[in-house]
Design a protein that fits this description.
The structure holds two protein chains of two kinds. Chain A is mainly alpha-helical. Chain A has helices at residues 2-49, 53-61, 68-79, 85-97, 104-111, 122-169. The chains are: A mainly alpha, B alpha/beta. The interface between A and B is medium-sized, with 19 and 19 residues.
């Protein structure tokens, strides 16, 4: 009886382990979706209200989501040192997400998104946002594809591992 | 915020390596400072009543771009109209002229990029500079007499106009200012950076001819003020204002009434639209009123 109980525990734990391990893929999607939403909001504010980047970053820093801290850092940087928006964006993304569930190339990709923002006229800003949206769509589709493929694989691996250990124990 | 403080605040917005350049000036020199010139791959040059003084730090092209970006709040798109007119106004009423590579579109400036130099000019207001001529501007019923301020450039026309506006506004007159080049009131984020009086409404950045008509219709002013007239459109709108019973206070580049009679505004002088002419000179000091004439061109300040 005890052995059966232990086996059930092992299977349940392996299921939980698989779920937790595969959560990182969902986490990646959440982060990229959040940055996409923030950039959409930024684009709306620039195109329709002509708000300045410090004003927009201040508002975005107050919103929920994993990227709020990046905008807080940018606000502080814009008011203080002499860095450009692109440099502050890149620095903020690397500091906040280098130890997150994002892969290194995903962090690098996100860190480049601030390039050109605030530098030109409204037409150049439109081009900038078109580039950002294309890049985010690419990152999102990769993350989605990876998530659906690897999530199932890791869940199956963990559960089958747990089952294997249980069978050996029995 | 004091004007001196707000001027030094501009340097606080500079990148770290150039932020302390102004510290090479003594307090006395800071008071006499009139402008700061910054060139890409050149030194910061401070100029004013003390002569010229250059910083020992060279400003790189990237450094100048960062300075301009910081002064534009990292948002060039939000300042395009100002940028295309060649200058921006910052907090405190200071003006920053910007040079670089101009992008033209259908004969008009679309954009300025690859910044090459900037000129930061300190905004000045001289409270009380119109005190000596106030008595000539109102009639016995306390009604404003249409006034034209005449002088060559750099004699203090705008400063005098601003002080007249402030004084009349404080005396209870409803004044409207059409500030086409943001020089009279230096509006920054909706707030005039100079004291132009409690009863003064400001239309900033609007063409004089359009703005004056708009103000007459919308703000019911007792007098309307604008700087540097000279076109036929200006003549028409001044006539419209006067025929609506609104007083006109304005200025023009010139040396004498005879010279102006042959200019585009000659018609206004012939028809005696202006009841007072104030002549300014830069000698012995900027803003010196040399003559006050009545509508017939007779001197009344002797």
């Amino acid at each position: 009886m005890l052995r059966v109980m232990v086996c059930i525990m092992i299977v349940l734990l392996s299921f939980a382990g698989g779920y937790l391990y595969s959560w990182r893929f969902t986490g990646r999607l959440l982060i990229i979706n959040d940055v996409k939403e923030k950039f959409n909001s930024m684009e709306r504010e620039i195109m329709f209200s002509m708000d300045t980047l410090p004003e927009i970053c201040r508002d975005l820093s107050k919103e929920e989501g994993p990227f709020s801290k990046v905008f807080t850092r940018i606000c502080e940087g814009l008011a203080g040192e002499g860095d450009s928006f692109a440099e502050l964006w890149s620095e903020g993304v690397k500091k906040e997400f280098s130890r997150s569930s994002l892969k290194k190339d995903q962090v690098e990709g996100l860190a480049l998104l601030g390039k050109g923002l605030g530098k030109g006229d409204i037409e150049e800003q439109k081009k900038c946002f078109a580039r950002i949206n294309t890049e985010l769509e690419r990152l999102l589709s990769e993350a989605r594809e990876e998530s659906s493929r690897l999530k199932k694989m890791y869940m199956s691996l963990f559960v089958s591992g747990g089952l294997a250990v249980s069978i050996i124990l029995i | 915020m004091e004007k001196e403080d707000s001027f030094e605040m501009i340097f606080r917005r500079f990148p770290e390596e150039y932020r302390h350049c102004i510290d090479i000036l003594t307090d006395e020199e800071k008071e006499k400072l009139e402008e700061v010139r910054v060139k890409a791959e050149g030194y910061l040059v401070f100029a004013g009543g003390f002569g010229e003084k250059a910083s020992d730090i060279k400003v790189s092209q990237r450094g100048l771009t960062l300075i301009v970006e910081k002064l534009l709040d990292h948002s060039v798109y939000a300042h395009m109209e100002e940028l295309c007119s060649g200058y921006i106004t910052v907090e405190g009423g200071h003006r920053i002229g910007i040079c670089g590579r101009v992008v033209m579109d259908n004969g008009s400036i679309k954009h300025i990029k690859e910044f090459s130099s900037i000129n930061i000019r300190k905004g000045r207001e001289v409270i009380g500079c119109s005190r000596s001529i106030q008595r000539f501007l109102l009639d016995e019923k306390d009604d404003f007499l249409n006034t034209l301020v005449i002088s060559p450039p750099k004699c203090g026309k705008t400063t005098l106009l601003r002080d007249i506006v402030r004084t009349l506004s404080e005396k209870g007159k409803r004044v409207s200012v059409v500030d086409e080049r943001s020089e009279l009131c230096a509006v920054y984020k909706g707030v005039p950076q100079y004291d132009v009086g409690r009863r003064t409404d400001v239309l900033d950045g609007c063409k004089k001819s359009k703005g004056m008509s708009l103000m007459i219709r919308s703000m019911s002013p007792e007098l309307i003020c604008t700087d540097e007239i000279g076109s036929e459109e200006d003549v028409a709108v001044i006539k419209e204002a006067v025929s609506s019973g609104v007083g006109v206070l304005t200025s023009i580049h010139g040396m004498s009434l005879e010279e102006l009679r042959t200019s585009k505004i000659g018609q206004l002088i012939e028809e005696k639209v202006f009841e007072r002419y104030l002549f300014l000179s830069a000698a012995p000091k900027i803003g010196t009123v040399t003559e006050v004439l009545d509508k017939y061109g007779r001197r009344i300040d002797a």
